[in-house]
Amino acid sequence: MLGQVVVVEIETDEVLVKRLLRGSEPGRYDLESLAGPTRHDARLRWAAHITAIIPPFQARRILVRGG
User: Fold this and answer.
1) d(CA 40, CA 38)
2) Are 29 and 20 in contact (CB under 8 A)?
3) Do residues 45 and 10 make contact, with C-beta atoms less than 8 angstroms apart?
4) Residue closest to 28 by CA, chosen among 8, 56, 5
5) Nearest alpha carbon to residue 46 among 26, 1, 38, 55
6) What is the pTM of this model?
7) Tens of pLDDT, residues 39-53
8) Each residue of 3-58: pLDDT tens digit?
9) What span, in angstroms and rounded, lies between the C-alpha atoms of 14 and 58?
C-alpha cells in the first residue's frame, strides 16, 4: 500500500486518511496529508485500502431508499 491514499489507525487511537510512505526504520511510516503537515515515523495498528467515499447527504439518501 506504500504510495497509496489509505485509511490508517495509529497508536494514539486516531483514524486518518493519509498517503502511506516508508518511514526511517522498519515498522514506522510517514503519513502524508492532503491538507496539512506530514506525520513522520508513525506506528500503525492497521491500514486499509479505500473502496468508496460517500458524503453523508448521499449516504442518508441511500439508507432511506433501501430501508
Assistant:
1) 6
2) yes
3) yes
4) 8
5) 1
6) 0.79
7) 999 999 999 999 998
8) 999 999 999 999 999 999 999 999 999 999 988 999 999 999 999 999 998 898 88
9) 25
Joined together, the cell numbers standing for residue 24 give: 526511517
Map grid coordinates 526511517 to a residue.
24
At residue 19, what is the residue type? R
d(CA 32, CA 17): 9
Residues 20 and 2: beta-carbon distance below 8 Å: yes
Q: Where are the beta strands (DSSP E) in the chain?
A: 5-10, 15-22, 29-32, 39-42, 44-49
